[in-house]
C-alpha cells in the first residue's frame, strides 16, 4: 500500500470519556472553578463531590413521579426495564444512546462492537436474547495465537505443540496446563481469590505470563500481576478443557442485544426512556427515593418508591446519598481499566482464520472478526471486512483518551503493529473508528469477588445496586442480566410491601455463578 493512500485513512474518534458526571454548568447553583481536564475526564470528580454533598447543585422539588427509577441504560438498566414491563418505571441514561459497554455501531450497514464481544449458550443473557427474538450463533472455534510471525490455531489444546517458542517453553506451557487442571478453584475460592495470578504463572516460562497479560487485560482489565488467581485458574481451565465451545454472538457483539432491547421497549415505553439524562443525586429516605437528573439544561427531580441503580460503582458511590461508609469505601476500592475500542474497516477481505485472535506483546491484546458467525451464511456477501481491536490501557494511561490527537496516534500504532504480525496483514483500512471508554472494565483484582463486591452491592431499603460490577468474577453481560432479574423481583416485593425483599436481593448478589 502506498504511503499516499495511508495518509488518507479516515480516523473517527467517538465515545465519552467524561463518564464520571458530565453536568451542564448552568445547572450549578454556585459559581464553579474553571473546569480542568481532570474534571472533564471524571477522575477527580470535583463536580460530583459537590453534587454528593448537596450544596452546589440545584435540586428542585419533585415534579415527576414513578414507582421505579432505573439509573443507567446499559445491559443492566435495559434488562431491568424489560423484566419490569407493565410496571411504572422511568429509565435515565446519560448518553444520547442506550447500551453502555454493550453498544453496537455500523459502517454502511455492517455491524460491529464497540465493547462487549460475546456471550455463552444458555447464559441469562442468551436466554434474554432468545426471548426478544435474537438467535445468537455459535463461534465454534477455539482461539488462535499470533506471535513471532506465526499463526497457531487452538492455542491451549492441539496448538500447544506448535507454539512458536523453544522446546523448553513449550514443555512449560504443557506443564502449566497439567498443573492447572489439578486445581479446584470452586473449593479453594477464598485462597485463590486472595492472591495474584502471577503467584501461579510465575513458576513457568515468561511467555505464559505474557499470554495471560493479553488475555486478562482484554477480559477483565488487569495484567496477570493484578489478576485474582481465582479468575485466572477458572479461565485457564475453561480454555484448556475446550469449554469456550459454548460461546455465541452475532455481528455487533452484545450490542446486538441492547439494540434489540431498545427496539422491543421503545414502541410502548419510549416516553419513559430518557437519553441525555445524567443523574446527579439519589436521595433515599424512609418512604421514597428522590432522584435528580440533568437533561437539556434543566434539573428535574423524580419522586420514586424504589431505585435500581445500574451505574458502575465509581459513579454510584458519588451520586447516592447516605451510603454507609464501609459500603462507599468498598465501591471506591473497585478499579476500572480504560479501553479505547478500535474498529478497522477494510474494503477487501483481510483475515478470516479465527474469531478471537490473541496477539501477546502488542499495544492491542486481541482482535475479532466482526461478522464471524454469519460469514458462511448462504448469500452473505459483505462489502467490507471489519476487525475489532481490544487495547485496554493501564489505569495510569487513562489520560491518553482525553485528546483526540493522542487517540488517533494510538490507533495508528495499533495499525502498524497489526500490519507487522503476518505478511498478509500489510493492508490499509479505509477507515479507523476509535470508541473511547474511560472507566470501562471492572478489574478482577484479588479480593474483589469474594469480599469487596458483597459490601459494595449491599441493597438499601429502597435502592438496589445492579450493574455487572455487582456480580463477577469478571465483567460479564450475563451477570448484568441475572442481577437485573433479581432487581425486578426485589422491586415488586418492596412495592407490594411484602417481606423478604432484602434477603432475596442479598442472596442473588452473593450467588457464585462460576
Ligand atoms: C471492552 C469490553 C469488552 C467486554 N467484553 C465482554 C464480553 O465479551 N462478554 C461479556 O459478557 N461482557 C463483556 N464485557 C462486559 C460487559 O460489557 C459489561 O459487563 C456489560 O455491558 C455491563 O452492563 P451494565 O449495564 O452493567 O453497565 P454499563 O455498560 O457500564 O452501563 C452503565 C450505564 O450507565 C450510564 N451512566 C453512567 N453514569 C450515569 C449517570 N450519572 N446518570 C445516568 N446514566 C449514567 C452509562 O452511560 C451506561 O450506559 C466487556 C466490557 C468491555 C468494556
Helix content: 25-40%
Bound molecules: flavin-adenine dinucleotide
Gyration radius, in Å: 23 Å
Given as residue ranges, the uncertain stretches (5+ residues, pLDDT < 50) are 19-52
What's the multimeric state?
single chain
Distance between the termini: 47 Å
Mean pLDDT: 91
Biggest sheet overview:
7 strands, mixed
Q: Given the helix and strand composition, which structural class is it?
A: alpha/beta
Which of globular, elongated, flat, extended, rod-shaped describes the shape?
A: globular
Beta-strand segment tally: 20
Number of helices: 17
Strand content: 15-25%
Explain the layout of strands and helices:
Elements: H1 3-6, E1 10-14, H2 37-41, H3 46-53, E2 62-71, H4 75-83, E3 89-92, E4 104-107, E5 110-113, E6 119-120, H5 124-131, E7 137-138, E8 145-147, E9 150-152, H6 167-181, H7 189-193, H8 198-201, H9 206-220, H10 229-240, E10 247-249, H11 255-269, E11 273-274, E12 278-284, E13 289-295, E14 298-309, H12 313-319, H13 325-333, E15 336-346, E16 356-358, E17 366-369, E18 385-390, H14 404-421, E19 431-442, H15 448-456, E20 463-465, H16 477-495, H17 501-510
Parallel strand pairs: 1-19, 2-3, 2-14, 3-11, 14-20
Antiparallel strand pairs: 4-5, 6-10, 7-10, 8-9, 12-13, 13-14, 15-18, 15-19, 16-17, 17-18
Helix pairs in contact: 4-11, 4-16, 5-16, 12-13, 13-15, 16-17
Bound molecules: flavin-adenine dinucleotide.
Flavin-adenine dinucleotide (FAD) is lined by residues 19, 21, 71-77, 92-95, 100-102, 115-119, 254, 278-279, 310-312, 315, 319, 339, 341, 437, 440-441, 467-468, 475-478, 480.
Amino acid at each position: 500500500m502506498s504511503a499516499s493512500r495511508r495518509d488518507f485513512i479516515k480516523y473517527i474518534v467517538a465515545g465519552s470519556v467524561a463518564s464520571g458526571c458530565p453536568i451542564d454548568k448552568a445547572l450549578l447553583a454556585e459559581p464553579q472553578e474553571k473546569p480542568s481536564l481532570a474534571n472533564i475526564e471524571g477522575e477527580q470528580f470535583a463536580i460530583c463531590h459537590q453534587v454528593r454533598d448537596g450544596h452546589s447543585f440545584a435540586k428542585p422539588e419533585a415534579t415527576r413521579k414513578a414507582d421505579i427509577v432505573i439509573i443507567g441504560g446499559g445491559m443492566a438498566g435495559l434488562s431491568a426495564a424489560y423484566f419490569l414491563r407493565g410496571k411504572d418505571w422511568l429509565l435515565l441514561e446519560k448518553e444520547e444512546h442506550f447500551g453502555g459497554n454493550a453498544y453496537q455501531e455500523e459502517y454502511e450497514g455492517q455491524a460491529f462492537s464497540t465493547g462487549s464481544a460475546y456471550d455463552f449458550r444458555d447464559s441469562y443473557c442468551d436466554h434474554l436474547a432468545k426471548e426478544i427474538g435474537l438467535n445468537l450463533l455459535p463461534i465454534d472455534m477455539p482461539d488462535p495465537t499470533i506471535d513471532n510471525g506465526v499463526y497457531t490455531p487452538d492455542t491451549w489444546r492441539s496448538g500447544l505443540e506448535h507454539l512458536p517458542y523453544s522446546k523448553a517453553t513449550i514443555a512449560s506451557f504443557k506443564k502449566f496446563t497439567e498443573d492447572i487442571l489439578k486445581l479446584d478453584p470452586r473449593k479453594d475460592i477464598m485462597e485463590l481469590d486472595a492472591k495474584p495470578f502471577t503467584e501461579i504463572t510465575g513458576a513457568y516460562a515468561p511467555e505464559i505470563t505474557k499470554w495471560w497479560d493479553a488475555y486478562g487485560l482484554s477480559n477483565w482489565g488487569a495484567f496477570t500481576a493484578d489478576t485474582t488467581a481465582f479468575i485466572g485458574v477458572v479461565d485457564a481451565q475453561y480454555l484448556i478443557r475446550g469449554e469456550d465451545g459454548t460461546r455465541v454472538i452475532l455481528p455487533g457483539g452484545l450490542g446486538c442485544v441492547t439494540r434489540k432491547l431498545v427496539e422491543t421497549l421503545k414502541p410502548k415505553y419510549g416516553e419513559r426512556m430518557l437519553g441525555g439524562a445524567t443523574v446527579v443525586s439519589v436521595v433515599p429516605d424512609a418512604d421514597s427515593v428522590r432522584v435528580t437528573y440533568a437533561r437539556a439544561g434543566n434539573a428535574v427531580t423524580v419522586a420514586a418508591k424504589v431505585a435500581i441503580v445500574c451505574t458502575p460503582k465509581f459513579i454510584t458511590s458519588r451520586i447516592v446519598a447516605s451510603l454507609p461508609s464501609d459500603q462507599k469505601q468498598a465501591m471506591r476500592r473497585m478499579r476500572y481499566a480504560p479501553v479505547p475500542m478500535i474498529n478497522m474497516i477494510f474494503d477487501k477481505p483481510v483475515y478470516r482464520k479465527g474469531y478471537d485472535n490473541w496477539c501477546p506483546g502488542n499495544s492491542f491484546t486481541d482482535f475479532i472478526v466482526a461478522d464471524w458467525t454469519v460469514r458462511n451464511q448462504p448469500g452473505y456477501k459483505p462489502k467490507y471486512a471489519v476487525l475489532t481491536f481490544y487495547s485496554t490501557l493501564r489505569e495510569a494511561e487513562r489520560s491518553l483518551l482525553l485528546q483526540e490527537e493522542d487517540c488517533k496516534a494510538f490507533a495508528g500504532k495499533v495499525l502498524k503493529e497489526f500490519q507487522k504480525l503476518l505478511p498478509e496483514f500489510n493492508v490499509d483500512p479505509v477507515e479507523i473508528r476509535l470508541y473511547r471508554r474511560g472507566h470501562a472494565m471492572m478489574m478482577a483484582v484479588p479480593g474483589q469477588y469474594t469480599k469487596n463486591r458483597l459490601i459494595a452491592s449491599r441493597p438499601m431499603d429502597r435502592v438496589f445496586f445492579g450493574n455487572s460490577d455487582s456480580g463477577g468474577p469478571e465483567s460479564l453481560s450475563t451477570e448484568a442480566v441475572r442481577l437485573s432479574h433479581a432487581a425486578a423481583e426485589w422491586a415488586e416485593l418492596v412495592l407490594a410491601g411484602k417481606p423478604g425483599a432484602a434477603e432475596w436481593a442479598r442472596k442473588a448478589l452473593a450467588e457464585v455463578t462460576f
